[in-house]
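Subgroup meeting minutes
Present: P.N., E.W., G.H.
Scribe: E.W.

1. P.N. recapped why we're keeping a running log of single-chain structure predictions: easier to compare across weeks, and new members can see raw inputs and outputs side by side.
2. G.H. added today's entry (614 aa).
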Amino acid sequence: MNPTPYRHAADRIVSRIAVPVLREPVFFCFMLLTFVWPQLTSDLFRIEATHWEILGLYIAYAYAATLPLGILGGKARRWYKAAAYTLAYAVSMAECFLLVFFRTFITPSLMSIATDTDPAESAEFIGCYLFTGRFALFLAAWSLVAGINLLLEKVSQARRTAPMPHAGLRTCLLTTVLAGGGIFGLTSNASAFESAWRLSRIHDRHELHELLREEPELCLERRSAPERLFFSLRMQAFDRNAIGSLHEAMESIAIDSCTFRSPEIVLILGESYNKHHAALYGYPLPTTPRLSQEEAGRLYPFTDVVSPANFTVKAMHLLFSFASQDRQTAWCDTPLFPALFRRAGYDTLMFDNQTTFTLENDDVWDQEIRHFLYHPRLSPQLFTHCNADKYPFDEGLLADFDRQDLRFRNPLRLTIFHLMGQHVAYRNRFPAEAGYFTADSIPEYSTSGLRRSRDERRIVADYDNAVRYNDRVVGEILDRCRTRDAVVLSDHGEEVFDYAHRNGRIHDATLSPDCCRHQYEIPFMIWMSDRYRAARPELAAAIARAVDRPYMTDDLPHLLLDLAGLSCRWFDPTRSVVNDRFDASRPRLLRDDKVDYDLIMRQAKGNAETNKGA
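Output recorded in log:
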C-alpha cells in the first residue's frame, strides 16, 4: 500500500489546524495574554494559584477567537479584530484592576454594588484610585502591552497573505501544542462547560436552586474573566426581580405595637446539625456536655422540629421571611424579620461566620445568601452591625461580639449568630485541640443498623467532634447572655453514615423516613437566663408547654415577634410555637415539591408496627 496519500492528508490536516495561528500569530498571542493576565495577577497577589488545565483552556479559547480570521476578509476582518480586541482588553483590564486594587475577581456581589450604587458616588469612588502611583503603573503596563500589540500587528501584515505552510517541524509542534493543550483544557473543564450551558438555559432562581442541587460545586471562579463576567451577569439577572420585590416589601413595613416583652433576644443558627448526633437528644456519645448540664427550666429542648429544606439557601429564605411552605406567598414578597425589629427600635447585630463579607468569594451558595441578606439596598434596613471578618473557627466570632456588646448601648437588641457549625469538611470545623473522638470511639454499627468501615467511622468521629465543638461555642454564647433569652437551631440536618454509605445532603427523588429523620429533623431549643425567667414566669410556662408541639422552622419569624411582643400585619399567633393559639395541625411540607413530613413518618410507623405484628 502506498502511504503517500495518507501523508498528504495528514499534512493538510496539520497545516489547516496551524494555519490560523501562523497567519495571525499576534492576534492569537495577545488573545491568549488577555485570558492569562488576570490569572497571573491573581498568582502575583496570591489570591488563587494557576492550574495547568486552565492554561490549556485558555489556549483553546484563544484559538477559537482566531479561527474566524481564516474566513473573514476585508472590512469584516478589520471590524472583527477591533471588536475582539476591545472586548478582550476591556474585560481583562477590568478584572486586573479589581485584582490589583481590591484582591477580587469579577463576582456577582460586585455587579450588585455597581448597579445599585449612584453613578456619581461610583465615579467618586473610582476617582479615588485614578490619581495614585499604583494606577499610573497599572495604566502604563497596559498601555505598553497595547502599544506592542499595535506595533506587532503592523509588522505581521505580510504573513497574512502567505500561502498555506507545509507540515514542517514548526507547524507540527504548533499543531501539537494547540491540539494537545486545547483538548486537555476542554476535557479537564468539561463539567464547567456543562454547568455554564445549563446556567444559560434557566430563567429564575427556582430553576437555579434545582441546578445547584445537582451541581453543588457550580462555581466559575477558576475559569476565565469572560466566564466570570457571564456568570455574574446571570446571577444579577436573577437578582433583579427578587430584590425589587423584597425592597418593596421592606419599604411597606408598619409596626402596630411592641411591648418589648423580650428586650434582648439572641438567635443562634447552626449548620448541618443532625439532631441524632446530639447527646442532648439521646445520642450515646458525649457530644453536648455543655448543653446537657444546663438546669431544667433554663434550657428547653424541643422534641419535634423539622426544617423545610436540607440545603442552606432555601432554609434561610424561609427562616428570615414570612413565607411558610403551606402558603403560596413567595419569600421575596414578605419583609425579613430583622427589618421589623429595626423598625420597632431594636439594634440588630449579625455575626456571620458562614457568609464571607470580602468581595472576592464567588461561591454560588455564598452569593445566594449574600444577595438577599447583605444586598447593598437591603442590608441597612436589616442590620445595625455586620461583622467584617470570617474566622477559621466559630469561636472567632465571640471576640467581635464582645467588642460590639460594649459599643452598643441600646437596651433593645436582637443578636444573630450564623455559625459554620458542622458544615463539610467536618475536620475543618474544629481546632485540633478540640478533637475528642477517634474512629475507635465510633460504634461499628450505626443506630440504624448500618455497618460502617473504619474510614467511614473516622469521618463520623470528625463530625461528632464538630458537634462537640459547636456545643462549646453555643455554651460560650449563652454564658454571655446573662439578661437575655436565646433561640438555638440549625438550618437543616446531615446524613453521616447513619442509614447509607455516604455523608452530606442527599437529594433523592423520593424522601425516605431515614432521610427525613437525619436531614430534616433538627435540634431546636429556647434558653432563658435566670434573671429573664424570673421576670417573665408566664413566658417560661408557655415555653415549657410547647416543647413537644410539632413545629417547622419556616414559622420562626412569628416566634421571634411573639417573644418581643411585636404586633404587625405579618405576625400570626397561630404560627408561634409558644403561643396558646398555636395551630399544631398545619402540614409540615418539605422541599419545593411539598412532601408531607408527618405523612411519611406516620406511614413508616404504621409499616413498622405491621411488620412487628407479623
